[in-house]
Amino acid sequence: MSMFEDIPVDVGVIYEGERIRRKDMQVELGGPDKEHKFELARVRKPEEIEDGKVVVIGPDIKDMAEGSSHPLGILIEVAGEKLEPELEGVVERRIHEYSNFIEGFMHLNQRYDIWLRLGKKSFAKGLNSFEYIGKVLQRLFKSELPIIEKMQVTFITDPAKIKEQWKEALAIYEARDARARGLKDEEVDKFYGCTLCQSFAPTHVCVITPQRYSNCGSISWFDGRASARIDPKGPVFEIDKGELVDAEKGEYSGVNAVVKQKSLGEVTKVWLYTAFGYPHTSCGCFEGAAFYIPEADGFGIVDRGYKEATVNGLPFSTLADSTAGGRQVDGFHGISIEYMRSPKFLKTDGGWNRVVWMPASVKERVAAFMPKELVDKVATENEARTIDDLKAFLKERNHPIVGTWKEKPVVAEEAVPTEAETPSETFVGTVPTLPITTGGYKIILKDAKIYAKKVIIRSMKDEKIEEKGKQ
Ligand code: SF4
Fold first, then answer.
1. For residue 63, what are the contacts with CB-CB under 8 A and spacing of at least 6?
2. CA 455 to the chain's CA centroid
3. Is the CB of 29 under 6 A from ligand 1?
């Protein structure tokens, strides 16, 4: 039985984290194949909107063919005596959470990157109109955030209409982000944390500081502050910075304590400005990822919208999988585009001096925030599609990383033995977290020390050749 009698499917927190695979989907809305998509919240005057109204511009769900994909714009307009435009970002980010409460309805990402799917089973139960989804959103928003007194929801699926409003939405996001620039981490006593993504990554905690924007790129420090004020028991909360343990790495005692508590002991330490050691964890909805390229001793950056293989041959999805899930993975780091505009961006690792490759579309968005002398020295897909191209380009442009190559011979170029055997009972190393899946159970070993009778090191290049030979 449904939580709401007039809604054909159930609604509840148990449906958060539900994934809908392509073969099970009735329709897909937004997603990587659609350029124009967005979700936006606006604070309006009470007389400008009609409470409870749901507007659909373009085809409704029932008019869409089974298995088809469509562009989508979601506009949430709210009014209330205590609502300030500062809260728009907070309201907007909750669309993700509340949509995912709907049985058989999946919402991923944020802002201009949204990706939704409705499952066939829920469609068969009667969830065949945006009208129902709008009604659920209105009820959840108003019960969770009582300062919302009126709410109107518009779903746009008409491609021409979306394109027009998408441009406006991008300008609004930019204005919102610009407001948060200028304030320094050292100038505030409090940071903010967010655990909204724990339904997908149970150990992930975002630490939102003035100079480290949330990974999803939709919650600034100001948004965090506003959210914690209006809903102190909600997913966004205040973090007392505590003592500055390490200024270079960005380690604070208060951050460590809160992250440890909120990740149930899984993450004990966070260094805010580095991708190594104890990097900030990554959930799954980060806007982009920084990935270490050992051959150049630098970082590549890739965003979710980049569809081709990056310079190391791997696409965004593979690189994202290497860091997602609330883990701290050396050299792989979920980030927002706005964090790239911060003076603290990978500061411990060398900042922009360490960045060697990124898609041209990302470079265009952040070029004004890069040191001027580096803009032409960082390669894009137009200059480098392979590691060899990249190294040649960096040398030709005299990227600062090239100077460090002379001092440190690049490890990846050393000959790797195809197979080696160590003496018996050799100590191999300590692993902070080692998951083993066996017999239907997942066993997690913490700080495991590994001793092995035999260690085989095989070059992956050779394996690939062997595999090819088998086909
Ligand atoms: S990425 Fe971080 S800030 Fe954004 S919703 Fe998820 S946990 Fe919150």
1. none
2. 36
3. no
Per-residue pLDDT tens over the stretch 390-421: 999 999 999 999 999 976 544 544 444 333 33
Model confidence pLDDT, tens digit, residues 317-367: 999 998 889 999 999 999 999 999 999 999 999 999 999 999 999 999 999
Q: How far apart are CA 286 and CA 409, in angstroms?
A: 33
- φ, ψ dihedrals at 344, nearest 5°: -90, 5
- End-to-end, the C-alpha distance of the chain in Å comes to 52
- Residue owning tokens 């239907």: 440
CA separation for the pair 183, 144 (Å, rounded): 30
Query: Where on the phi/psi map is residue 124: left (φ > 0), alpha (ψ -120 to 50), or beta?
Result: alpha
Determine the 3-state secondary structure of 423 from DSSP: coil
Find tokens 């490890």 and name the residue: 411
Q: Among 308, 398, 293, which residue's Cα sits nearest to residue 349?
A: 293
Q: Contact at 8 Å (CB) between 455 and 420?
A: yes
Q: Which residue has the tokens 């507007």?
A: 55
Cα–Cα distance measured from residue 465 to residue 202, given in angstroms and rounded to the nearest whole number: 38
Tokens of 29: 């809305």
Specify the DSSP class assigned to residue 11.
B
> Is residue 201 in contact with ligand 1, taking CB distance under 6 Å?
no
Task: Please indicate whether residue 196, judged by its CB atom, sits closer than 6 Å to ligand 1.
Answer: yes
The answer to whether the beta carbons of residues 1 and 12 sit under 8 Å apart is no
SS3 354: helix
Q: Are 73 and 173 in contact, with CB atoms under 8 Å apart?
A: no
- The helix-helix angle for 221-230 and 88-99 (nearest 10°) equals 70
Model's pTM, two decimal places? 0.78
Looking at the CA of residue 214, tell me the nearest atom of ligand 1.
3
Asked if 358 contacts 364 with a C-beta cutoff of 8 angstroms, the reply is: no
E strand residue ranges, 104-143: 105-108, 115-119
- Check if 328 has its Cβ closer than 6 Å to any atom of ligand 1: no
Instruction: Please choose, from the candidates 136, 101, 116, the residue with its C-alpha nearest in 3D space to the C-alpha of residue 20.
Output: 116
Nearest to 83 by CA among 125, 128, 49: 49
